[in-house]
Amino acid sequence: MMLEIFLFAIYFGFFTWLTYKPNRNGVSQSKLLLPPGDEAIEIVTATPKEQVHNQPLVAVEVNLSNGIKNEYISSRLTSRQEVEENSTQSGRSELKSVEGELAIALGNQSRQSLQLGEIPATSREELKYDNQIINEAVEQSRIAVVEKIKEFVDRKNNITGSYKPLYELLTDYPFRIGKMLRPTMCISVARSVGGMGQDALTSAAALELYHNAFLIHDDIEDGSESRRGKGTLHQIIGVPRAINVGDATNVLAVGLLLENLSAIGVSKALNVLHEIEFMAQQSVEGQAMELDWVATNASNLTDQDYFKMCVKKTCWYTFITPCRIGLIVGHPSASGKDLVKQLAGVTRFGMILGIAFQIQDDLLNLQGQIETYGKEIGGDIYEGKRTLMLNHVLAQSGKASEILEILALAREQKTPDQLTFIMEEMQRCGSIEHGWKVARTLAKKAEEIFDNIDFIRPSTPLRPEEEWGCPVHDGRFIKELINYVIYRNV
């Protein structure tokens, strides 16, 4: 009898092991890193508690197999990357691109069809977004935001006893030509819900200052060498001074936000400050996750681990917060309690589009062109960043231990040949293709969410009383932004 019970226990345990399916918070690595199936995954973020009545979670379910089967793109794209020594940067590398024609199948047979795992990129004749709307909106934002920041810096610089050399450095990163997506989103959402462009300018400029402060500190923490086509600030003036400039940029942003008290009223100004505080908290948590993964040479990260980090580090300060602040500033109501549904809607949209944006940014870091990308090509590998593609190759490659040995080396000890080895493994394992698939699927999900947001007007004509000059700062820019995020080359 005891033998029968013992055998039954073994059988039951074995059967349970075979049929056990992990919950969403513990999905196995192979399940998330192999080509996705039909089961949806859930992407979740917290939100500021002040405006959600103790229900601070926003979630979106995404099926990573949606919309990517049996699709073909005929593209002109980078067909091979060759790593060469860059003699001007002490052994650092750049990637030279050789272009060619290739038809890419994005489906179950795509690994056989795509030999090198290049990034699908549409030709200029086949842009998937309205480049005129994107360029006009971004350029007009740049003019207005740079003027606002310059005016504010000059005012601080002219205070009796101010230390003028500091203020000269404060205009370095903000005046380099960046994408200006955050201010443009903020202003566009504000106008699309009925607000005035000038009312959102102060918050938009503050967001750009926070962004530049984060960049200065991130470049130091990551050991980056290039930013917006020039050397990073810490390489030019040294780490201690660059840290101080980053700190001063943050202080400047706070001072700018105080102008909202008179511009949009106390209630809205305080709501904007709550948003900024929460954004900063999420950003430093996400940065801590990424730095910890590099420090511990993490090897078992899943796609969902990456999504969680991405939501914190990228989505909040790049997409979610600019949209939420734009909504708060532009909406007729000054009460956050009246905006719970709307805030949740733009949070879902920004969260999903933000992940797609970061994946595309990581892809460009692997196979972009430095002239347009503006940052060091291959820098993420030198820095050991756990991108979606690196996590994928670690899970799929039979040479994961060799890759980890390289990643464990200090940046200055990594060689161009080692960079080439990792990139070839990514190509061989379909890791770059995997990243492209996920980014494209997420962008389609973001488009679906946006199409169901009924409070953002498709277009908002300029009003006579509006002190603003750009008519496309409205729902048209937000709509075009979705495809821009994944088809851009900058």
Description:
The structure is a single chain. With about 500 residues, this protein is mainly alpha-helical. About 60% of the residues lie in helices and about 10% in strands. It is built from 21 helices and six strands. A hairpin with a 5-residue loop joins strand 3 and strand 4 (about 90-105). The longest helix is centred in the middle third of the chain and has 30 residues, at about 265-295. It is globular, with a radius of gyration of 24 Å. The N and C termini lie far apart (about 70 Å). Residues about 1-40 and about 65-125 have low confidence and may be disordered.
The average pLDDT value, as a whole number, equals: 80
Gyration radius over CA:
24 Å
Main beta sheet, described? Answer: 2 strands, antiparallel
**Which descriptor suits the 3D outline?**
globular
Distinct helical segment count: 21
Report the sheet-strand fraction.
5-15%
- Give the strand order, joined by hyphens, for the main sheet: 1-2
Termini Cα gap: 72 Å
SSE arrangement, N to C: HHEEEEHHHHHHEEHHHHHHHHHHHHH
List low-pLDDT spans: 1-38, 66-125
The percent range for helix content is: 55-70%
Give a short summary of the structure.
By secondary structure, the chain is mainly alpha-helical.
Topology:
Layout: H1 2-19, H2 29-33, E1 41-46, E2 57-62, E3 71-86, E4 92-106, H3 110-113, H4 131-157, H5 164-170, H6 172-175, H7 181-192, H8 197-222, E5 226-227, E6 230-231, H9 233-237, H10 239-257, H11 260-263, H12 266-295, H13 303-330, H14 340-367, H15 370-373, H16 379-383, H17 388-396, H18 400-407, H19 416-429, H20 431-451, H21 475-487
Antiparallel strand pairs: 1-2, 3-4, 5-6
